[in-house]
Amino acid sequence: MNLGSCSNKLIGMDWSKRDGVSDISSSLADFDDQCQFTVDFSRFVVVHGAGSFGHFQASKSGVHKGGLNQPLVKAGFVATRISVTTLNLEIVRALAREGIPSIGMPPYSCGWSTSERNVASADLSGVAKAIDSGFIPVLHGDAVLDDSLGCTILSGDVIIRHLAEHLRPEYVVFLTDVLGVYDRPPTDPNAVLLREIAVDEDGKWSVVKPTPQSMNKQVEITVAAHDTTGGMVTKISEAALIAKLGIDVYIVKAATSHSLKALKGELRHNIPDDWLGTVIRFSR
Amino acid sequence: MNLGSCSNKLIGMDWSKRDGVSDISSSLADFDDQCQFTVDFSRFVVVHGAGSFGHFQASKSGVHKGGLNQPLVKAGFVATRISVTTLNLEIVRALAREGIPSIGMPPYSCGWSTSERNVASADLSGVAKAIDSGFIPVLHGDAVLDDSLGCTILSGDVIIRHLAEHLRPEYVVFLTDVLGVYDRPPTDPNAVLLREIAVDEDGKWSVVKPTPQSMNKQVEITVAAHDTTGGMVTKISEAALIAKLGIDVYIVKAATSHSLKALKGELRHNIPDDWLGTVIRFSR
Fold first, then answer.
1. Which pLDDT score, from 0 to 100, does residue A36 have?
2. Cβ density class A9-41: b for 16+ within 10 Å, e for less
3. Does the distance separating the beta carbons of B71 and A31 come in below 8 Å?
4. Which residues of A touch B85 (CB under 8 A)?
5. Is B206 on the interface with A (CB under 8 A)?
6. Residue contact B13–A86, C-beta within 8 A
7. Nearest CA to A282 among A203, A164, A199?
8. How would residue B70 be classed by pLDDT, with cut points 50, 70 and 90?
9. Tens digit of pLDDT per residue, chain A (284 long)?
10. Are B85 and A81 a contacting pair at CB < 8 A?
11. Is A71 at the interface with chain B, CB within 8 A?
């Protein structure tokens, strides 16, 4: 992202006090008349998962299975939302401190709801309007109401796919803590990084690179017990659905040169041989 | 509020870790099979202002005056939203710890926007749905997009009035840090508490109790310099608009027996002489 800057100085947008000290004075000093401040950056939407937030509250109470009339589920719904919105706020603040005009848009409050776990409603116009106003909307996996189950957990992966379907971004990047998708758990020393996955008309996906001959193995995917939304399985199948729209998806390790290339859109026409990650593409 | 309880034990709904200790274990223990847990309380909406949060960020950057294309306003918009959503989360957590199934619904993300500072859109169905699902929606004064100004500050008082118009509650309680509305700043030792204010068909309001003869004075209202949304003036005029709908409004000091009476709805048919506060009513 090409961030707005003033004499290459960062314009902090989190003016909250930290340890009793507000950084508003230094921030305001940046806005003087001499300042050639331009807010000129790519149009972006950020969607984050719950990480260590939310999953525990959700799985302990069974929010993902519904049944809002049960006290435990109801309490878990409240507890899950508190946990994921706490994380959302921290992410919004971290982005704002870097001068990114981020706006938290918790899906529950943005009118997202599901029916049998499929997205039934979502205020996409609000997301579009925030982007048009020059903001970066920050959504997240959330506990939502479900028409048939009462409630469930809407994963960030499903949100990304729904946004992609309607907002038609140029590309989608999944940031994760490993280099990409492997043929088995990446902790396995023999795990092979899948460099390219092709999705066909029927939504079926197959590994293109490395070539199946060189692998000659079944892809094995596991899901962590606490993950209420399907872990890597959901991630890949949602990514495949996005790719089917003709939108390339990059699954890549956060905070690496590989993810930076993906985020900048540098991989759209040519993927260099030294790039490490997984690209999921529609094979016409 | 008649809270759900289990053997008179509180059911905490904030399972976040505090100082590294999660209270989820003790909370989960409350949900055993023996538990006669009932969630049976009044249908409520909570709207809070910004207090020491938000006002400073908003007034320093002029978010209330609009002009989102100016870097300072844009940064202030982001900073204001971070500040008010931080407060919202703290209030949601405080309520959840007391067993109240509260759900944060920040107006910006709930689709509230304005046109020339008047509410232009608001997702009231989301608020109604949350109430119907047994939750207590918690809204707040927020920075929002404005069709003509670009952006502005939507005060909690205006939100309450808009909700009252559409959800038609039995009564509305404004909790504040003084006993009610006075005829001049309550710090003035001669300030007189206005016990009853009548609103007529034209929306004009007049003091009924104490009787004008016994006061024989003009009511004087001041607004704090940092208050971007009009302070007590906005509060009273919005309260008058609510009263005009035939909905009684009580302005009362928080955390007193007087506010408890108001919140419980005990004042609807008869206001005891020892009750201290201001009631604003429609005089037909």
1. 46
2. eebbbbbbeeeeeeebeebbebbeeebebebee
3. yes
4. 89, 92, 104
5. no
6. no
7. A199
8. very high
9. 544 444 456 678 888 766 666 656 556 665 654 444 444 457 899 999 988 888 888 888 899 999 999 999 999 999 999 999 999 999 999 999 988 999 999 999 999 999 999 999 998 999 999 999 999 999 999 999 999 999 999 999 999 999 999 999 999 999 999 999 998 888 889 889 999 999 998 888 889 999 877 765 566 665 565 666 666 777 888 899 999 999 999 999 999 999 999 999 999 889 999 999 999 999 97
10. no
11. yes
The pLDDT assigned to A27 comes to: 60
- Tokens at B281, concatenated: 């009513």
Mean per-residue pLDDT over chain A, rounded: 86
CA count, 13 A, side-chain hemisphere, A244: 17
pLDDT at residue number A133: 94
Assessment of whether the complete model's pTM goes beyond 0.95: no
Q: Tell if the CB–CB gap between A39 and B4 is shorter than 8 Å.
A: no
Return d(Cα A132, Cα A130) in angstroms, integer. 5
Query: What is the count of residue pairs from A and B with beta carbons less than 8 Å apart?
Result: 162
**Domain coordinates in residue numbering, chain A:** 42-169, 171-284
- Given a cut of 80, whether residue B5 has pLDDT beyond it is no
Separation of alpha carbons B257 and B115, rounded Å: 40
Tokens 């207090």 belong to residue: B51
Indicate yes or no: CB of A37 within 8 angstroms of CB of B71.
yes
Tell whether the torsion through CA atoms of A232, A238, A243 and A244 is positive or negative.
Answer: positive
Chain B residue numbers with beta carbons less than 8 Å from the beta carbon of A68 are 133-134
Note whether B175 contacts A: Cβ–Cβ < 8 A. Answer: no
The answer, for B148 touching chain A at a CB cutoff of 8 Å, is: no
Q: Are B263 and B44 in contact (CB under 8 A)?
A: no
Q: Which of A177, A161, A151, A182 is nearest to A234 (CA)?
A: A161
Nearest to A235 by CA among A157, A179, A141: A157
ipTM confidence? 0.87
Please, which residues bridge with residue A21 across strands?
A: A18
**Looking at the domain B42-169, which fold is it?**
Carbamate kinase (3.40.1160)
Q: Which amino acid is at A223?
A: V
B226 touches chain A (CB under 8 A): no
User: In this complex, is the C-beta atom of A96 within 8 Å of any C-beta atom belonging to chain B?
Assistant: yes
Q: Does A59 touch chain B (CB under 8 A)?
A: no
**Partner residues linked to B181 by β-bridges:** B194
**pLDDT tens for each residue of A202-238:** 888 889 999 877 765 566 665 565 666 666 777 888 8
pLDDT band at B224 (very low <50, low <70, confident <90, very high): low
